[in-house]
Amino acid sequence: MTASVIEWSALAACKGPHRNVFFPPSALERKEDRLLREQQAKRICSGCCVQEACLDEALRNQESHGIWGGLNEVERRAKSTLVRTPPELSRSDARQYN
User: Rounded to 5 degrees, what are φ and ψ at 88?
Assistant: First the structure.
């Protein structure tokens, strides 16, 4: 872990006995159970003072499991795709670069 990760993670609301709600169990999980677990984790994230730093870290490292920064894997993947997609240029903007 880098120093910046250690700094924000020390303040994270997900630390402690309820941390198991942030990651799926090793055994198969029913959809209803997953949704409840994720909802519980997201509720904890919503009041966290380092939620943005956590999400940034997850997006930067392409975390593939768990709730990070209040988003699950699918939500992070969608956000990551949106962030990486370059904005479309108008024709007048494009002429500036040619």
Answer: -75, 140
**pLDDT given for residue 94 in this prediction:** 43
Instruction: Tell me the mean pLDDT in the region 76-92.
Output: 65
Neighbours of 10 (CB within 10 A): 9
Helix/strand/coil for 72: coil
The Cα 72–Cα 84 span in angstroms is 18
CA 72 – CA 64 distance, rounded (Å) = 9
Amino acid at 67: I
Confirm whether pTM is higher than 0.85.
no
Tell which residue, 22, 21, 19, 20, has the closest CA to residue 55. 22
d(CA 51, CA 67): 11
Per the structure block, which two tokens stand in for 20?
A: 């198991």
pLDDT for residue 83 is more than 90: no
Nearest to 24 by CA among 12, 36, 13: 36
With bands split at pLDDT 50, 70 and 90, how would you rate the model's confidence at 97?
Answer: very low
